[in-house]
Amino acid sequence: MKDPKITIQKTELLSDNWYLLNKVTYNYQEENKNIETHTREVYDRGNGAAILLYNSAQKTVILTRQFRLPTYLNGNETGMMIEVCAGLLDKDNPEQCIIRETEEETGYRISVVKKVCETYMSPGAITEILYLFVGEYDASMKLTDGGGIAAEQEHIEVIELPFDEAYSMIKTGEIKDAKTVMLLQYAKINNLV
After folding, report:
1. How far apart are CA 168 and CA 14, in angstroms?
2. What does the alpha-carbon distance between residue 192 and residue 166 come to, in Å, rounded to a whole number?
3. pLDDT per position as a tens digit, 93-141
4. Which residues make Cβ contacts (< 8 Å) with residue 112, sequence separation at least 6?
């Protein structure tokens, strides 16, 4: 149910070059009944899903490495990020999305995933809900080299690492991606590997 203290007054489209950037003006009624008017820019890129692939027998995880322009613009000298596999839902439900993205990006065909949680990754500016999953893999599930879809120009490198090494990369700063940190911590707390 929508909060009756919030009233959207106006939504202006600022950009739709890649996703939607809107300028939203809204009224917020305070506890003392005063009404404040606020204006915020909101980026709507749709919702997404991410997965940590783990192999409990081998004690390994599958991660990806790819160039991320925003990190490059904000101090990451190479722009390369080590992350869990992830993608936008498009018209899929979260489970269908992450199974599809796993095969496209990593080359592994999985059929069973476990939902960990739903999270807003940057709720002050982005509408996206990210659905986080874990899934077990083994060598028999590897169908291709992965790497993403050529038309999307993702250039994804697939990395298989011992879990302990991947987890230590949080401390060293080699892994700075929030969804990846969250899923590696989930795996550690729940003794998945």
Report:
1. 41
2. 14
3. 999 999 999 999 999 999 999 999 999 999 999 999 999 999 999 999 9
4. 135, 136
Residue 13: CB atoms within 10 Å: 9
Taking alpha carbons only, the member of 32, 63, 8, 59 closest to residue 177 is: 63
Running DSSP on this structure, what letter comes out for residue 156? P
Q: What is the pLDDT of residues 13-40, one digit of tens each?
A: 999 998 999 999 999 998 888 999 999 9
- In terms of DSSP H, where are the helices of 5-147? 69-73, 94-106
End-to-end CA distance of the chain: 40
Could you please report the per-residue DSSP string of 93-128? -HHHHHHHHHHHHH-B-----EEEEEEESSTTTB--
Q: Is 127 exposed, middle or buried (0-12, 13-18, 19+ CB in 10 A)?
A: middle
Q: Most distant CA pair in the chain: distance in Å?
A: 62
Indicate yes or no: pTM above 0.90.
Answer: yes
Residues 176 and 78 sit within 8 Å (Cβ to Cβ): no
